[in-house]
Known about the structure:
Layout: E1 3-8, E2 26-27, E3 30-31, H1 32-41, E4 45-51, H2 55-61, E5 68-71, H3 78-84, E6 94-99, H4 107-116, E7 121-127, E8 136-138, E9 142-144, H5 151-154, E10 158-167, H6 168-174, E11 198-200, H7 214-234, E12 238-239, E13 246-247, E14 252-253, E15 258-259, E16 264-266, E17 270-271, E18 274-275, E19 280-282, E20 285-286, E21 291-292, E22 297-299, E23 302-303, E24 308-309, E25 314-315, E26 320-321, E27 326-329, E28 332-338, E29 343-346, E30 349-355, E31 360-361, E32 366-368, E33 378-380, E34 385-386, E35 391-393, E36 396-398, E37 403-404, E38 409-410, E39 419-420, H8 433-444
Parallel strand pairs: 1-4, 1-6, 4-5, 7-11, 12-15, 13-16, 14-17, 15-18, 16-19, 17-20, 18-21, 19-22, 20-23, 21-24, 22-25, 23-26, 24-27, 25-28, 26-28, 27-29, 28-30, 29-31, 30-33, 31-34, 32-35, 33-36, 34-37, 35-38, 37-39
Antiparallel strand pairs: 2-3, 6-10, 7-10, 8-9
Amino acid sequence: MSxxxxxxxxxxxxxxxxxxxxxxxxxxxxxxxxxxVDALQAQGANVVVVVHHHxxxxxxxLAHAGVRFARQSAPRGTGDALLSALPELPDGGPVLVTxxxxxxxxxxxxxxxxxxxxxxxxxxxxxxxxxxxYGRMVExxxxxEEAACTPxxxxxxxxxxxxxxxxxxxxxxxxxxxxxxxxxxxYWLTDLVDAEAKVVSGFLEEEFLGxxxxxxxxxxxxxxxxxxxxxxxxxxxxxxxxxxxxVEASVRLEPGARVGYGAVLRGTSHVGGDVGEQCVIxxxxxxxxxxxxxxxxxxxxxxRSGAIVGPLARLRPGARVESGAxxxxxxxxxxxxxxxxxxxxxxxxxxxANIGAGSNFGAGxxxxxxxxxxxxxxxxxxxxxxxxxxxxVAPVSVGDGAxxxxxxxxxxxxxxxxxxxxxxxxxxxxxxxxxxxxxxRAAKG
Length: 445
């Protein structure tokens, strides 16, 4: 029998203070609602998402998620939201229902509630540390919303999670009969859970954290981050701290990889090597045996086995650091390949270039790749020595084994095995330093 799930995502989310739909706020690389959709689809559910506020945003964000949509014509409560999805529901079989702002729901919990579902309605419940704001699970009655609780009922800590399984035929029969509640004349989903409903307790409170403001969003992010890190640690990834590293859901790690304290790994990154403390790695492939040292930022780059990057280096899109190559502190590489054994170690910029195998790119050396209109390429051969503070004005090439002296500005090709020195003439005027300083002091006074 097919399984259907309904995600209620029609709310406005005013407490987020954001022009973005509440359910689309990002959590570790995914919109909040996508975590819920994925947990439901992991159990084979056909997902229906109920929309109203920010409808176009939600539809666009889930366009490729394999879900169907139902539109709530007006925000008239959770019962009315589910009623709007009725045309999308089957005639019979189980229907899961949950809110779109509870991204911490685990697939295992979905499976558990399904396995324990009996009769017309089943609800997941948990013991709340502080039950204020929750509907209480009252024996012989069902769910009693807090506003309607007696003083004795308010002491009950077993509360409604907002996660249900209903029989589809029961929903078709009961949803049209729900009555509005004053003062807003809203229709409550909880009216479907009566004394005959099955209550399944023992769920973790954190799974049903409702993300209604930015503080709860940050809390959910922390919980998800630790979950992800623990899962990778169980697969053989070393973490300096499970609580102080961020690995987005789309990142892939290999056994033996290391994630340093405070490191952030995002996007399509694939890491098999060592990522140091406070690094930011985005859409980057770091092979096993490579080392990205502390404070480095890599985006859209490839770092091969045996390469060393950083500390405090920046690899921009298109950067490739081949096996055994080094890119050192305060160096920036963009759309360029540093070939095997080459070294760009200090305070350099390499853009739109190839630095040949075994070459040395001296401290402060740069490629001048932009003429104000177009980008141009620099080609440095194998075994080349580029001295300190050299400026290579592209388009230009330096042949294999050449030497370019420190401070040179190179605007023409250098043949292989040549020496190129392009410094301006140095003029020395003995005994004139103090005279110059005196003149400057007088001008200042």
